[in-house]
Records
---
Amino acid sequence: MAERPVLSFAVRSPRRRAGSTPVVGCGRFAERLPAVSPAPSAPPVDQLNDQRVLRVRPLASPALLKDRLPLTDQARDVVLRGRRDVVDVLTGRDERLLAVVGPCSVHDPAAALDYATRLAALAEEVRDQVLVVMRVYFEKPRTTLGWKGLINDPGLDGSYQVNEGLTLARQLLLDVLALGLPVGCEFLDPITPQYIADTVSWGSIGARTAQSQVHRQLSSGLSMPIGIKNSTEGDVQSAVDAVRSAAAEHVFTGINEDGQAAILSTTGNEDCHVVLRGSAQGPNYDAASVRATLERLAAAGLPERVVVDASHGNSGKDHRRQPVVVADLARRLAGGERGVRGVMLESFLEEGNQPLADPASLVYGRSVTDACLGWPDTADVLRTLAATLRAADPTRSGAGTG
Ligand SMILES: O=C[C@H](O)[C@H](O)COP(=O)(O)O
Ligand SMILES: C=C(OP(=O)(O)O)C(=O)O
């Protein structure tokens, strides 16, 4: 039998025998009232609330998790420097290209950290031309149904140990920062950022949530630059609208550090930008699509800059096309095209993807969501990108060169 749901804030009537006198209030204010028959049309209280909630479990507070897994001073410096570098690249003060690179989703923290170790070394190699941020995505928005990521279901088995998921996520973020690598996350659930946002240097709002007021409000208060994707149908204006909305002040409900419901007032986030990810209708990384997006941004009074996601609709979901997208961008940037300030790659240790199965039977380092580039191809893509940019402008100035 299902457990009794207890989600609503409505005060439940205590169970009582038929005809007994109800007690209203509590403690010394309790008052005996004569029994009244309910109006014939009033449904019994237990049919009003939580009729579709199966279970409610306690959630650790953000403060508790941060107390257990605090940021070190070194990690704090990596986060802050990462945020500053990303902002500098977006504004053009730093002439390098941002590259957000990593698995579609983290399902095995050990494999993600193995990947991070390789990426940290590669990031050093290309840092004169490319600012590398590792994609460390724990929340997956699904087109219909599917595994929703490590925070939601760290056991990959429908056991939904969310407290464990938050702990694993924060621990991995700290481990990646310890390597000196800044991280990027998608923010999907409006509660989750309180647990991990202090570790993040670049954030994303995905194609399926860019029109959501909840996510625009959230972006307006986040402390890092946020890339907002065009819709899965290819609508870019909704992303431009989202950037504009997120730049404004908002007042909305959320949670505080102690996990209590709170009213949040935000300043607005002027570091949001559009991410062109293509769509089911085709790619939108070509020069004409970029130009059209920059014109939309200018018309809205917003900075003219975009990041291009080489995966998703821009690769037709074929990971082998991601290098083609990046090579085309590199050629155009080397030729002087303006406006593209970054790229995103979905990449893991092993190329392709695999169906989600018993964790013990999964291939190590291969995605369980979208297909990814493997490590050797990823290294080639980033090295070739850096070499193309270097050849075009050996004097390119970047904050990372100092
Ligand atoms: O990047 C990840 C996926 O494209 C996104 O989560 C949607 O996945 P789905 O279409 O397999 O649900
Ligand atoms: C879900 C993602 O992308 P999109 O929102 O573009 O589908 C993603 O980058 O993981």
---
Amino acid sequence: MTPPPPPPHRYPMLPMQDAVDVVLSRARPLPAEEIPLSSALGRVLATDVVSARPHPPFAASIMDGYAVRASDCPGSLRVVGASRAGAPMTSAIASGACAYVTTGAPIPPGADAVVPHERCEKILDDDDDDDDARAPARAVRVLDAATPGLWTRAIGSDVPGGAVVLERGTLIGPHEIGVAALAGVRRVLYTGPHTTATLRVHGTPKLALASTGDELVDVGVASSASSSPNEPPRLGEIYDANRPMLAAAAVAAGVGVDDVVDLGVVRDDPAALARCVAAALDANADIIVTTGGVSEGDRDHLKEVLSGESAACVAAGIAGVVRFGRVAMKPGKPLTFAEVRRTRTDSDGRDADGHVALVFALPGNPVSAAVTFQLVVVPTLRRMLGWADPRLRRIRCRLEADVRLDAERPEYHRATLRWETPCAAPPGSTGRQISSRLSSMTGADVLLELPRGPGTARGGSVASALVIGDLRAAAIQLARF
Ligand SMILES: Nc1nc2c(c(=O)[nH]1)N[C@H]1C(S)=C(S)[C@@H](COP(=O)(O)OP(=O)(O)OC[C@H]3O[C@@H](n4cnc5c(N)ncnc54)[C@H](O)[C@@H]3O)O[C@H]1N2
Ligand code: MOO
């Protein structure tokens, strides 16, 4: 006789794609703010940046040499002045004359071309000394014919005036900062007073972080049981890896260092957990990330606290709704997503501030916490930061060796990218994939998206993978050729 099927679980297992859709549907880009260029790295433009003026703003020389009238060349010309970068010559060049010019300097009026000094012969008087070959002469013989525009950059040839040089939604890196600076950034398209050298970008989220678990010891801090930070941990105690790891992951994803609110280690107690959520709301956190306490044990209280079902919620003044409580994924099955708010009311009985925080209650196993953070928290942060496409980037790669599939859940297998040709690069898999082995995350460039089993994904077959590492540091260097 086959045993009866287990009763349906309160939280059905959501496919991962649906879980990402749910969290993204609850997150909004944060309101725009104006910041100086110097702090724009990693932020996302809320408005287009329009060049305040053409670049170059004047016809400029591309070479050190002589500004000439093209119709005079070849021929002998009097040098009547000099136009240098930062010290332009404003008087006109007549026929038969030319001006010494340096790279980047404005072309004087009347001139329409530049001849590099290497293509000119100096005409020296008896009393001229010519120690410095680069110094201007009083007269030169231009050896070649010239055409108008030769060795010059026309006004606006790099950037026309009024052109959009950076589009809203652009992630700002060092080169975008350079482009914005060159454009003067004064004419940023927004309705408000113009401010020099500022950019209009989306705000950055505030993220509150807690590790939950009676067994946890804050690294460098005494556990509640131990008397001194210098004492060795007692039996059953575990160093808290998740909080330092996820604080760094949040900063790597674009949260400001000062916008990570450390809620510490919280005990497996509904009242303590509810107070922790209340503290995060009072700190105005947009996102609350916890780890641990979301599975099936008798000390796993987070789901009841986040759904507002625990009596402790009334005392702490919080209410919440759990949007999903399990996801069909390995590792990370108990991943829980909720929205919480304060239940304080004003004198009219309305919600005091209406602030709602998104809560990601990640599983406690460090790998499960790390993988779920990448898969759902990172896209949420990107959406709040204003990314045009907040989802993780997906690539195709070829499996180096057979991988056994999990019979129950699609698996996110941590892997290192390497180039296909023989090279001394690390192997594809980061090794044993159990969710407590955090070393399987170190050096991982991608999460291979392996389907649910049965069976095996064959070595040599193509698999999709989500990028979680910095590919600039990946072992995908081609041999020099
Ligand atoms: N009967 C069932 N038991 C479990 C199930 C299930 O479906 N039925 N799911 C398993 C899965 S999958 C996972 S993942 C874990 C997740 O459990 P929790 O989220 O409740 O996490 P904890 O029990 O609190 O901790 C799990 C593990 O990780 C260690 N841990 C926790 N926090 C940290 C930290 N900050 N730093 C380092 N290590 C940490 C903790 O000591 C445990 O070893 O549940 C399974 N159980
Ligand atoms: O899903 Mo749990 O994260 O297997 O270890």
